[in-house]
Amino acid sequence: MKRLIFLLTMVLIMLSSIVAGTLAMYTVSIDNLAKGSVIAKEFVFLGEGTDTFQQGLKISPNETVDWQFKVKNYKDQIVSETDMYYKLTFNVQALTGKKAIDPLTVTVKDLDGNILNSVTGVGTFDVLGEFPLAVNGQEKEYLVEINWPGDGNSDIKYAGSKYGTMINVDAAASQIPFASEPENPPQGNKVSVRYETTVPWQNGQSGPYQYEYKVTIINNSTEPINSWNIAFYLSTDRLTSAWSNAKLEPNLPSGYYKFINPGYNNPTTDNILPGQSVSFRGPAVGMGTEAIHTVTVGGSNISDTTNVDLTCEFGKKSLN
Questions:
Q1: Distance CA 299, CA 49 (A)
Q2: What is the dihedral sign for C-alpha 68, 71, 75, 79?
């Protein structure tokens, strides 16, 4: 059987807005470039396509709600012809234009009740899985549990329209294990990316909100990243340029950004040495509360990688 190494990347956006003590709605969609599909909460790593579903949820302090979904490597009679590995990345953040509900905890479990990962407030975590090669199709089911512990003041503090939480989930599948790392690996993945934003401001009463962003790429590996580049998606906020240490590629599809090294012929800016980092910043339009997703980092001496440790921090007074 011929093995073809491929990467199936599905961008699953679960929008959970919490307003006046209710978790009103989350929406799930798959990017139209993805090789996969979502049908009735079944994530299938086969073919190309786009599917969506919606489900209403309500939550209040001292309450827990949950929902389930499956990951499958088959559809009807078609079964993947190789070992299949997948990674689910959960990014819990403030809803665009709002503040996150700090006590909210998002936990992912298997159906035996084992906790696979969790975050309280805002943060990012991964869940890994695999389907060994087999004649019959396989599936794994997950439970996402959302808990709002009550402390007597939660209703008052988080009531109104200023608070909301968004859950972004990126799902990627590959014939190469995501967990295959060298012995004694550095902390985290080989590449870390940090995306930071300032508190937004408005020029005039009717002008759009603006903010400043900063992107930092950290090389955790033992090899340099020469002539680096980084690409990612940002659905609502809009980055308009890069002031220094990077060049924004022009004429890209809406919501897709690619930055390349500045080409100064300077190793400290054009390359990222082991254990070192590069940063760039610039202006943007929006509230600055949306996380970047589907991040890839590459260089002239390495292939693009999606195995990135991503951190997003919003609403800072200043960017150091």
A1: 30
A2: negative
Give alpha helix (H) positions in the chain.
154-157, 267-270
Q: What is the C-alpha R_g of the chain?
A: 20
pLDDT at 169: 67
Which is nearest to 14 in space by CA: 107, 123, 105, 90?
90
Question: Residue 33 corresponds to which tokens in the numbers above?
Answer: 């470039």
pLDDT digits (tens, 9 = 90+) for 132-144: 888 888 888 888 8
CATH of the domain spanning 191-316, picked from 3.30.420.10, 2.60.40.290, 3.40.50.720, 2.40.30.10? 2.60.40.290
- Alpha-carbon span 195 to 124, nearest angstrom: 12
74, 80 in Cβ contact below 8 A?
Answer: yes
Q: Which two tokens stand for residue 17?
A: 């807005």
**Which two structure tokens, joined as six digits, stand for 135?**
């004649």
CA dist 138 and 68 (Å) reads 17
**Continuous H helices in 56-194:** 154-157
Q: How far is Cα of residue 117 from the mean position of the Cα atoms in its chain?
A: 15
Question: Which class for 204: exposed (0-12), middle (13-18), buried (19 or more C-beta within 10 A)?
Answer: exposed
Domain boundaries, the chain: 7-174, 191-316
Residue 85 parent element (H or E): strand 84-94
Q: Name the token pair of 242.
A: 């890069």
Quick one: how far is CA 74 from the chain centroid?
Answer: 25
Contact 317, 198 (CB under 8 A): yes
Which residues in the chain land under pLDDT 70? 1-43, 45-59, 94-98, 150-163, 168-170, 179-188
Structure confidence at residue 145 (pLDDT): 84
Query: What is the spatial distance between Cα 284 and Cα 200, in angstroms, rounded to a whole number?
Result: 9
* Tokens encoding 132: 């060994």
Q: What is the pTM of this model?
A: 0.47
Instruction: Give yes or no for a contact between 205 and 251, defined as CB atoms under 8 angstroms apart.
Output: no
State the CB neighbour count (10 A cutoff) for residue 229: 19
